[in-house]
Amino acid sequence: MNLSLRRNAIALAAFGLASGLASAQSSVTLYGVVDVAVERIKGATSLTRVSSGQQQGSRWGLRGSEDLGGGLKAVFLLESGFNADVGTLGQGGRLFGRQGYVGLAGGWGALRLGRQYSPMDDIAGVIGTKTYDVLSVVPIIGNGDYNRVDNAITYVSPTVANTVFQLQYSLGEERASSNPSPDFGKQLSAHALYAQGPLTAGLSLMQVKDADGALAGQQGRDALLLVGAYDFGSFKLSAYYDVEDRAAEKLKVYGLAAAFKFGETTLSVGAAQAKNVTGSAALDDAKIFTLQASHNLSRRTAVYSHLTAVSNDGVAALGFNGPVAGGRSNGIQVGLRHRF
Question: CA–CA distance from 32 to each of 84, 90, 207, 335 (Å)?
């Protein structure tokens, strides 16, 4: 081999090695969930239907990181929700409606920019945020209008004394200052999540500067969510308390849930009380009861069944399929969930 060819071969080998190192320092993962159930819901009328995302929201996503050196890395996550029953996009037709952020992470924690889950939604996830779970049946703000927030800046701390802290600020809709509700959607929220051994406990606070973009001025809302869970092994006990602004009165939700594990099967029961559902001085409380079962067919695939029953007082109207104020509502479903 002549000198020129040898130099070219060495250059190509070095280029290949550099490319391999760059590839090794970066990673991108494709993941997803397909979840579909058959359900029977009863409110003003009864309806049988096929629904998507009942145990876990159907989705596909890309997440990745790049090693920048010195313990610093770039991270990103793009997550698209979809309705597997009809094949349409979820979250109002957004391409990446579940999440879409980029950030930096290191020993100091992580800073993320973009559409993200709120710190309160993360805490609610300790108890459960499935369609048939109490904190979804009751429209708490941290698992409702602000379970995900746009234009968010989020800091996630490293673990300190078995606790992770999170602080988030959202710029809301970024309306012009001349708009009658210029601060619509702006929110500040935080959480502390403690986990050690069998004990998990979380506290989250949220302050929304203006929660109603139709009314002029600021319609602020404050919320607090406290959760706790203790895993005894084959038995797990969870408790929660939520309080937040709701018209003249404060909405309060508190409840208990117990989960029993038998091999690959988990059976859960729960009961909760929601007070001042509409925020009026009238009788607007509701009682909610849940019964759930899930069986793992494999590490990725499970069959499940959920039953939730709601008993409304006075002017409260929680439940399914256009529930009637002061009436009863319930839903039952059987579904199949697969992760990839």
Answer: 12, 14, 32, 17
DSSP calls for 164-208 = EEEEEEEETT---TTSSSTTBTEEEEEEEEEEETTEEEEEEEEEE
Q: Which one-letter DSSP state was computed for residue 22?
A: H
Q: How does pLDDT run along the chain (340 residues), one tens digit per residue? A: 444 444 444 444 444 433 444 444 799 999 999 999 999 999 999 999 999 999 999 999 999 999 999 999 999 999 999 999 999 999 999 999 999 999 999 999 999 999 999 999 999 999 999 999 999 999 899 999 999 999 999 999 999 999 999 999 999 998 998 999 999 999 999 999 999 999 999 999 999 999 898 899 899 999 999 999 999 999 999 999 999 998 889 999 999 999 999 999 999 999 999 999 999 878 899 999 999 999 999 999 999 999 999 999 999 999 999 999 999 999 999 999 999 9
Say which residues have a Cβ less than 8 Å from residue 195's Cβ, sequence separation at least 6. Answer: 162, 163, 164, 201
φ, ψ of residue 292 in degrees (nearest 5): -135, 145
As a whole number of angstroms, the distance between CA 79 and CA 100 comes to 6
The DSSP symbol for 129 reads -
* CA gap 250, 221 in Å, rounded: 10
SS (H, E, C) 215-264: CCCCCCEEEEEEEEEEECCCEEEEEEEEEEEECCEEEEEEEEEEEEEECC
In this prediction the pTM is 0.88
Using CA atoms, how far apart are residues 227 and 331, in angstroms rounded to an integer? 25
DSSP secondary-structure letter at 92? G
**CA-wise closest residue to 303 among 257, 339, 337, 266:** 337
Six token digits for residue 16: 């290949």
Domains of the chain: 27-339 (2.40.160.10)
Q: Which two tokens stand for residue 181?
A: 């509700």
d(CA 129, CA 320): 16
Bridge partners of 318? none
**Tokens encoding 329:** 């509502």
